[in-house]
Design a protein that fits this description.
Blueprint: H1 24-40, E1 46-49, H2 56-64, E2 69-73, H3 77-89, E3 96-100, E4 115-121, H4 129-142, E5 143-153, H5 164-176, H6 185-195, E6 199-206, E7 210-216
Parallel strand pairs: 1-2, 1-4, 2-3, 4-5
Antiparallel strand pairs: 5-7, 6-7
């Protein structure tokens, strides 16, 4: 998704002439996302990212875990170009298995084999609900037994927003696309996860009224 977190402006595109995009919000949250993600995953995990965006999360995590393998994906061609450019720039080609154009609402993602973890940051609130439903079905299909789905972003909690800024953000999302919006973790997301054999494992409080949500197959 070529949009900044909680912002309607595009990524900054002047990082380099090689196609790399730069997201200030990803730069701000990349350390804590890496730390929480790595606390849940083994250092030699095979990971599929849904919604790679600029590719900054990918290279930041891989750069700290040389035995981890990664599969990138997004529906955007800009995201593909940027992610591959970041991989090349950081010399991480040996850890990167490739990039897929994945529409998470579809049943077949075209990925070979299973993965130990799926990372999905800032996607389900800026896409139709069928993407969240497809994400859970795909996670059930592609995760190994005991594999984990990691979601990062804003959520309502048991029917209520957690901050005034999230209320405003939710209203802004819905004004741009009526099928978007901040999802309710307990009332919307968890039931769909459970229908697909995923159990809620942990919820980590994150900066800027966001959460990291871990499901296990």
């Amino acid at each position: 998704m070529i949009k900044n977190e909680k912002d309607s402006s595009p990524f900054i595109r002047d990082v380099g002439s090689d196609g790399r995009l730069y997201s200030p919000s990803t730069e701000r949250n990349r350390d804590i996302v890496r730390d929480v993600f790595s606390s849940e995953m083994s250092a030699n995990a095979r990971v599929l990212e849904i919604g790679s965006g600029s590719g900054q999360h990918c290279v930041h995590i891989l750069g700290n875990f040389p035995n981890m393998r990664w599969i990138g994906s997004d529906v955007s061609e800009d995201a593909k170009v940027s992610t591959l450019a970041w991989i090349k720039h950081e010399k991480l080609e040996d850890q990167f298995e490739g990039f897929h154009s994945i529409d998470a609402s579809k049943t077949d993602w075209g990925v070979n084999g299973q993965v130990d973890g799926i990372l999905c940051c800032n996607v389900i609130h800026i896409s139709p609900w069928k993407v969240a439903q497809g994400l859970m079905a795909g996670a059930s299909r592609y995760l190994t037994e005991g594999g984990k789905l990691f979601l990062y972003g804003p959520f309502r909690r048991d029917g209520a927003h957690v901050s005034e800024s999230n209320i405003a953000f939710d209203e802004s999302l819905k004004s741009r696309n009526e099928s978007w919006g901040v999802r309710d973790l307990e009332q919307d997301v968890v039931p769909v996860a459970e229908e697909n054999g995923l159990r809620l494992l942990r919820v980590h409080d994150m900066p800027a009224n966001n959460f990291a949500v871990i499901f296990e197959k």
